[in-house]
Amino acid sequence: MELKNLIRTVPNFPRPGMHFRDITTLMRDPQAFAAATEALCQPFVNKEIDAVVGIEARGFILAGAMAQRLGKGFVPIRKGGKLPPDTYRESFTQEFGEEAVELAKSALKPGAKVLLVDDTVATGGTAMAALELLEQAQAEVVATVFLIDLNDLGGAERLRAAGHEPFSLVSFPSGNTEPLPKPPKA
Q: Domain extents for the chain?
């Protein structure tokens, strides 16, 4: 099954000159969603993993399905202000401005082995902030996992430079016709 062909490209969204890769078209096809989940899980079936950590929002969907398939717990990394205290918090800059993500301090035990999952790696800002949260929680990141790599935006290279080899199923050029701000150096 060619998963890439099931991901819709929406031109000029969320603003003119940008192209959004819509995974909902893949997820509404039960066979495609199952195939994507299986393919995302396959490299990690025999790895020691304690939890699958998903980044809000579409990362929740993929990470939840992966956690179920792998027989592991799911842990959310949420946008700032969405979790009750006590949380680890990390702010970062992305193409649309300043953001923050949080992880409940009680979510993981120190030394927990985790998969970090999101739908897309673009500039890598969100993933790098999530990795910082997991470092604060003293978790061990086994892998960073994405359905899509927008390969011309540098996020995968940024993760590699930080010592995390990203795993993704498909890659696209971003298709952006306007330049995005450069992500800060790691």
A: 48-172
